[in-house]
Amino acid sequence: MNDTPHTSSDPNEIRDTLPDDLNVTGFVGPYQFPDNSRRRIPATMYLVIAIVCLIAWASSRNGETALVNDGFLYVSVLFVVFGVYGLSASWRMKVDERDALVRATRAVGFAVGHASAQQVWRGLRSRPTWRVFCYSSEEPPMRRGLVLVDAVDGRIVECLVEDNPDRNK
User: Fold this and answer.
1) How many CB atoms lie within 10 A of CB 102?
2) Which parts of 8-155 are beta strand (E)?
């Protein structure tokens, strides 16, 4: 039985590799969450395509071409809906994860030991919100809290604090 790992000298061999942004060896600083205001780019593209489709439909309404039909009008309306929704859901985030952790620590009312923040969206317009889960600083933690911090204006949306049920395990 051969215990040596399989290595190939064939340069055309397909191998699984980790994407560059997930490669720990290339770490250059903290992860930067993308801002939701980037949604404006595809929303604007939808609106431009809608205008082009509407112009194409309007200019060929007399039936001279079989390439442009009423489908262009329907697609134009659909793209306008997508574009308007994209613009209305493109909130600019003013609160980053560090600021959300600080605001959550103030809201729970105890000294925080371990904590984590996750970006989520709420509501029809996908308002960005930080979901912060934190434990008290005792070992084992006596309390835990879940705080929702609005990523646009920094207000506390919800704060739930309870005794840690896992502390006796």
Assistant:
1) 15
2) 112-122, 127-136, 143-150
Q: Please count the structural domains in the chain.
A: 2
Residue 51, φ and ψ in degrees, nearest 5? -65, -40
Instruction: Provide mean pLDDT across the span 118-142.
Output: 90
Residues 6+ apart with CB under 8 A from 118: 130, 131, 132, 133
Tell me the per-residue pLDDT of 9-60, one tens digit each, with 9 for 90 and over: 677 777 777 777 666 666 666 666 677 788 899 999 999 999 999 999 888 8
Tell me, yes or no, whether 46 lies in a domain.
yes
Give the total residue count for the chain.
Answer: 169
What's the one-letter identity of residue 37?
Answer: S
Q: What is the dihedral of CA 95, 97, 100, 106, to 10 degrees?
A: -140
DSSP 109: -
Asked if residue 9 belongs to a domain, the reply is no
Alpha carbon distance 129, 27 (integer Å): 26
Domain that holds residue 131: 97-163
Residue that has been written with the tokens 């790992």 in this structure: 5
